[in-house]
User: What shape does this take?
Amino acid sequence: GRADVMVGNMGWTPARAAVLAITDAIYYAGAFVCMKQDKPFTKAITISDIKGHSIGTVNGFTIVPEMKKIPGTSDVKLYDNSDGCVRDVVAGRLDFGVLDGPLVDYMILKNPNWNLKQVALVADPDYPQLTSKQHTVAGMNQENHDLFDAVNAGVKWMWKTKQNAALMQKYGI
Assistant: This one.
């Protein structure tokens, strides 16, 4: 009850659906890996490419269990927020960050001196949460039906008018 709406790339899980009213997807974001620009990956990175490297994300993200199963990963670091994870990539304390792609795009856009890039993570059926598109949704208290209905109506309007795509393009995402 401390916030009315939560928005972000979020994988649907039964546990989340049990505690949140979750809207339709506002847009879908691909799976990306944040890294320093000098890394050799340009168009894509695979699960096997991560072997021998450290990887990080935010504690509680649905991708954490699958990240911990990647063979040969030198370290899986969990952060309280995306900013901490990105800052460790910038500082060289972390090789790869797997985060909310549009958020990291925006951070890179605003901070070109960080010398970061994002590269698409190739879909792998053995890692469906980690390598598939994420749904960007809004979640809210299940008891607030009026707010949920209003927000979900707005989501449907964005798809109908294509405002979701226009806004993503406007902000370089």
Helices lie at 14-19, 64-67, 82-91, 101-110, 128-131, 145-161, 163-170. The longest strand covers residues 134-140. The two ends are 31 Å apart (CA to CA).
